[in-house]
Amino acid sequence: MSNRVTSKKYMVAQMDEMQPVPCPCGMTRRAFATEDNDVATIHMVDISGDARTHYHKKLTEIYLVLEGEGTMELDDDVVPVRPMTAIFIKPGCRHRAVGNMRIVNIPVPAFDPQDEWFDS
């Protein structure tokens, strides 16, 4: 299944069959990133040890930790996370995950690669 425009009123993604792509946090599989969808997307992300601090000007992100433990750096706070921790990240919040973990990330509105910002 691919991320293509569809005339149906639903989309289905088999995320374990998607090819992962690099992202500031590690490697991600992105579903529902189509030209006709500006509502939301869902990503399965394998966090790596060298995740980069970044922020978004438009996106709100919801993280759900599935596997592993570590911390989230959220502006000036460091928050411990473990499986079933959920984090709501508003636009402008500088963030990164630290540790080896797998998360689900739901960006709202739909993910836009032009809305990833770095301080350095």
Keywords:
Jelly Rolls; 0% helix; six-stranded antiparallel β-sheet; 120 residues
Which helices and strands appear, and what pairs or packs with what?
Elements: E1 21-23, E2 26-31, E3 42-47, E4 60-68, E5 70-74, E6 77-81, E7 86-89, E8 95-98, E9 101-108
Antiparallel strand pairs: 1-2, 2-3, 3-9, 4-7, 4-9, 5-6, 5-8
How does this model look, in words?
The protein is mostly beta strands and about 120 residues long. The chain has a single domain, classed as Jelly Rolls (Sandwich), CATH 2.60.120. The chain contains no helices and nine strands. The chain has strands at about 20-25, 25-30, 40-45, 60-70, 70-75, 75-80, 85-90, 95-100, 100-110. The strands form two sheets. Strands 1-2-3-9-4-7 form a six-stranded antiparallel β-sheet, with no helix packed on it. Strands 6-5-8 form a three-stranded antiparallel β-sheet, with no helix packed on it. A hairpin with a 2-residue loop joins strand 1 (about 20-25) and strand 2.
H/E series, N to C?
A: EEEEEEEEE
Looking at CATH, the homologous superfamily is Jelly Rolls
- Main pleated sheet: 6 strands, antiparallel
Mean pLDDT: 93
Judging from the principal axes of the Cα atoms, what is the shape? globular
Give the strand order, joined by hyphens, for the main sheet. 1-2-3-9-4-7
CATH class: Mainly Beta
**Rg calc:** 14 Å
How many strand segments?
9
Secondary structural class: mainly beta
Number of domains: 1
Measure the end-to-end span: 37 Å
CATH architecture: Sandwich
